[in-house]
Amino acid sequence: MTDFTAILKDVSLEKFGEMFSVLPRQAKQVLGKRLGLKPPKPGRLVAAAVRTAAKSENIYSAILDFDDNEAAEEILRSWLLLQRPMLVAALDHMGLAHQDGLTESNDVEKIATMDKKEIKALMDAICTVCSSEDAMIYIRFMGGTI
Q: Any idea where the domains of the chain sit in the sequence?
């Protein structure tokens, strides 16, 4: 089983903030409750961007401390769904049928069994449309070893 928390532990706070920002409000609230975080105190008007940054920092710290693999998977999955060019590049490279980067094929699971040479080729293909950090996150999420 993939250790999604380990993937999040390896990303920068800035990247985590990017991932956290794409979560729907309800998911952010549920995540905060699961991790035992208290909502901000009412009464102070704070810019939404400042609140979001502070909340993502708190959740990032909590995930690193609590090792909540299910929460980490949800954060990663939500972020990855918005990385369509990367998903398209990966699926095209593997020769899998897809619709705008989404597939119902279980053949994507073969990433977990790829050798280093195959992973390198996949990384090279994905990095034509995204950063190497994003590509590594995707490959690790799919069970690949970098």
A: 4-74, 84-141
Half-sphere exposure of 37 (CA within 13 A, CB side): 20
Residue closest to 29 by CA, chosen among 66, 58, 67, 69: 58
The DSSP call for residue 39 is P
**pLDDT confidence bin for 44, thresholds 50/70/90:** low
**Which two structure tokens, joined as six digits, stand for 140?**
């690790």
In sequence order, what are the beta bridge partners of 102?
A: 99
108: region left, alpha or beta (phi > 0 left; psi from -120 to 50 alpha): alpha
Predicted TM-score (pTM) of this structure: 0.84
- Judge whether 138 and 94 are in contact, CB under 8 Å: no
Percent above pLDDT 90 for the chain: 52
The string of pLDDT tens digits covering residues 63-88 is 777 778 888 899 999 999 999 999 99
